[in-house]
Amino acid sequence: MELKEIRKLKTEDLNKELEKFYKQLVKIKKDIRDGKEKDVRKGLRIKRIIARIQTVLNENKKNNLKQKENGKEDK
């Protein structure tokens, strides 16, 4: 998932995607441990996507807080 795609999503959608990728990560780790999956880098790719989603979520939270603070100052 590209960063551009992630930034377009709403917070609810980001949380759903985050949950989906966490489940995928658990499955990939289990498959690697059991020897079903040979590509170890899949886990790293999923971790990077999770980090991107978390970064965008944190940016959104900060922006929302700033907007609320600015709204209170204007009144």
Could you characterize what this model shows?
Helix 2 runs antiparallel to helix 3 (41-74). By secondary structure, this protein is an all-alpha fold. 85% of the residues lie in helices and 0% in strands. It has one domain (3-74). It has helices at 3-8, 11-34, 41-74.
Outline the fold blueprint:
Blueprint: H1 3-8, H2 11-34, H3 41-74
Helix pairs in contact: 2-3
User: What class, by secondary structure content?
Assistant: mainly alpha
What's the tally of helices? 3
What portion of residues belong to β-strands? Answer: under 5%
What pattern of helices and strands is seen along the backbone? HHH
Indicate the mean pLDDT: 93
Low-confidence stretches: none
Note the main attributes of this structure.
75 residues; mainly alpha; 85% helix; elongated
Summarize the structure in short.
By secondary structure, the protein is an all-alpha fold.
